[in-house]
C-alpha cells in the first residue's frame, strides 16, 4: 500500500485520534461540509478512517442562501462527498438576524441548528473542520472583546450539549495550509467562500490583516502560540469549573424556561467566583458566551440592585425577582 502524502496522513491521524477519544465507537458520524478545504479534507479523512472502523459517514452541507448560486455550490460539495463514499445531505436554511447579533452569527446559528437536527436523527456526533488557524483567530477576537479567560479558551475539541449532541473538532492542531495540501494531494477541488475574504467580518480582518502583522513584527509561530494559550486556559478552566460545580448545585434551581440563582449566595462569593458562576451557568444552560460587560451587568443585579429591569443576553435574559436572579430563554 503506497505511503499517503504527509498532509493527508496528518489529517487522517487527527480524525483517527478524535474518533478514538469517544467513550464508545459510534455507529455513524455527521460532518459539517461547506465544500471548503478544511471541511473537505476532514470529510476525505473521515471517510477513509470510517471504512476501516465500519462507521457510516453522513455529510451535511447547509445552504444559507446568502449568495447567488449557493444552491449549486452546495450540490457540488454534496456530489464530492458522495464520490468519497459518504451519504451526503443538503439542508437549505433561512438566515434571519432576529437577535441583532449580525449576519455571521445568524448564519452560524442556522447552520448549527441544521447539523444538530441531523445528528439527533442519526444519533451521531458531529465533526467540524475548524483548524489551528481558526482557533488562533477565535482567541484573538476573544482578546479584543475583553470577555476574560472564557473567550480566550477558544473552541473546545469535544463539547457535549445539554441535549447530548456531541461536537468534535479533530483539526484544531492542524494548519489551514495542511488541509489545502491534503485536498490537492487527493485531487479534491475545494471552494473558497467569498465571505472568507470580506473585510466586513471581524474574523476576516483578524486573519488577513492582524495576524500577518503580528507574525511580521513579533516573529513566526503566533498562531501556534495563541492556540496553545487556548488549550492551557481551557485546562485551567475545566479544573476550576469542576471545583465550583458543587457551589452551583447549592445555589441554582431550575425555573420555567431557564434557571434561578440565589442572589444572597452569589453576593457572598468573591467577585471572580461570582462572575465565573454567572458565565458558567449561562454557557451550560444556553450555550452562550458572555462578554465582560454583560457579566458585570448581571452581577449588578446582586451587588448594585436598584430596581433595574431585565438584561438581554445572547439567547437569554436575566432579571431579578425578589431574592433570586432568573435567567430565562429570550422570547
TrEMBL record:
Keywords noted in UniProt: ATP-binding, Coiled coil, Cytoplasm, Ligase, Nucleotide-binding, tRNA processing
Domain of life: Bacteria
Chain segments annotated as coiled-coil in the UniProt record: 223-250
Subcellular location: Cytoplasm
Family statement drawn from the similarity comment of this UniProt entry: Belongs to the tRNA(Ile)-lysidine synthase family.
PANTHER family named in the record: TRNA(ILE)-LYSIDINE SYNTHASE-RELATED (PTHR43033)
Protein name in UniProt: tRNA(Ile)-lysidine synthase
Organism: Microbacterium pseudoresistens
Taxon lineage: Bacteria, Bacillati, Actinomycetota, Actinomycetes, Micrococcales
Amino acid at each position: 500500500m503506497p505511503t499517503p502524502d504527509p498532509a493527508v496522513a496528518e489529517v487522517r491521524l487527527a480524525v483517527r485520534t478524535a474518533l478514538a477519544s469517544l467513550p464508545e465507537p459510534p455507529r455513524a458520524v455527521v460532518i459539517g461540509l461547506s465544500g471548503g478545504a478544511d471541511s473537505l479534507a476532514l470529510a476525505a479523512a473521515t471517510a477513509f478512517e470510517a471504512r476501516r472502523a465500519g462507521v457510516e459517514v453522513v455529510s451535511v452541507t447547509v445552504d444559507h442562501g446568502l449568495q447567488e448560486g449557493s444552491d449549486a455550490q452546495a450540490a457540488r460539495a454534496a456530489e464530492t462527498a458522495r464520490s468519497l463514499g459518504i451519504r451526503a445531505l443538503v439542508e437549505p436554511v433561512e438566515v434571519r438576524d432576529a437577535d441583532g447579533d449580525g449576519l455571521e452569527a445568524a448564519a452560524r446559528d442556522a447552520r448549527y441548528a441544521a447539523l444538530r437536527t441531523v445528528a439527533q436523527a442519526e444519533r451521531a456526533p458531529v465533526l467540524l473542520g475548524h483548524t489551528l488557524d481558526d482557533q488562533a483567530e477565535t482567541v484573538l477576537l476573544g482578546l479584543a472583546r475583553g470577555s476574560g479567560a472564557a473567550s480566550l479558551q477558544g473552541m473546545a475539541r469535544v463539547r457535549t450539549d445539554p441535549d447530548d449532541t456531541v461536537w468534535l473538532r479533530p483539526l484544531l492542531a492542524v494548519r489551514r495550509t495542511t488541509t489545502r495540501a491534503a485536498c490537492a494531494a487527493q485531487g479534491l477541488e475545494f471552494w473558497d467562500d467569498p465571505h472568507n475574504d470580506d473585510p466586513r467580518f471581524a474574523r476576516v480582518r483578524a486573519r488577513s490583516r492582524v495576524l500577518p502583522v503580528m507574525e511580521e513584527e513579533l516573529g513566526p509561530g503566533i498562531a501556534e502560540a495563541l492556540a496553545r494559550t487556548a488549550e492551557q486556559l481551557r485546562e485551567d478552566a475545566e479544573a476550576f469549573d469542576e471545583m465550583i460545580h458543587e457551589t452551583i448545585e447549592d445555589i441554582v434551581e431550575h425555573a420555567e424556561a431557564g434557571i434561578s440563582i440565589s442572589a444572597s449566595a452569589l453576593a457572598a462569593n468573591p467577585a471572580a467566583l461570582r462572575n465565573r458562576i454567572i458565565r458558567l451557568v449561562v454557557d451550560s444552560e444556553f450555550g452562550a458566551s458572555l462578554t465582560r460587560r454583560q457579566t458585570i451587568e448581571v452581577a449588578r443585579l446582586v451587588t448594585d440592585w436598584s430596581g433595574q429591569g431585565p438584561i438581554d443576553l445572547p439567547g437569554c435574559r436575566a432579571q431579578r425577582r425578589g431574592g433570586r436572579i432568573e435567567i430565562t430563554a429570550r422570547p
